Amino acid sequence: MEDDVKGSKRGIKYKPNTSTTTTTTIKMANPGNVAGGYKATLNNPNVSDEAKQHAQEMLDSGDFESAPSSSKHDDSMKNTGNVIGGYKATLNNPNVSDEAKEHAQEKLDELGA
Fold first, then answer.
1. What's the helix, strand, coil split of the chain in %, to 5?
2. Quick one: pLDDT band at residue 62, thresholds 50, 70, 90?
3. Is residue 59 part of a domain?
4. How far apart are CA 42 and CA 51, in angstroms?
5. CA distance linking residue 68 with residue 45, whole number of Å
């Protein structure tokens, strides 16, 4: 049997799909992640001085001030039951300092648990 199309010998004709459409989704970068990338560039010994200078200029531009800080903890956004459970686990963990246990107990008292 002769090849029909594209080397098919089974009598099945191959017809490429010529009407394919491609959709591209563009996501905006998280400003906190972008700032973190620039900070990593500054501390990376394998990065050129030119790249470090550019990263510092971008950080100095102040475009990342609206980015949420990861150092801020907002317990109101978390599941209260999980927060209480975490503090209780702290109290029972022998590897935790007395200071941390006191803090956990204070938080539990504030939460009424």
1. 50, 0, 50
2. confident
3. yes
4. 8
5. 27
- pLDDT digits 0-9 by tens, 6-28: 555 566 666 666 666 655 555 66
Contact by Cβ (8 Å): 42, 52:
yes
**pTM passes above 0.70:** no
Residue-number span of the structural domain to which 104 is assigned = 74-113
Residues 82 and 63 occupy one common structural domain = no
Which tokens belong to 51? 């790249």
Q: How many CB atoms sit inside 10 A of residue 74's CB?
A: 7
Determine how many CB atoms are found less than 10 A away from the CB of residue 85: 12
Cβ atoms of 65 and 32 closer than 8 Å: no
d(CA 23, CA 35): 29
* Angle, CA 55 vertex, CA 51 and CA 56 arms, to 5°: 120
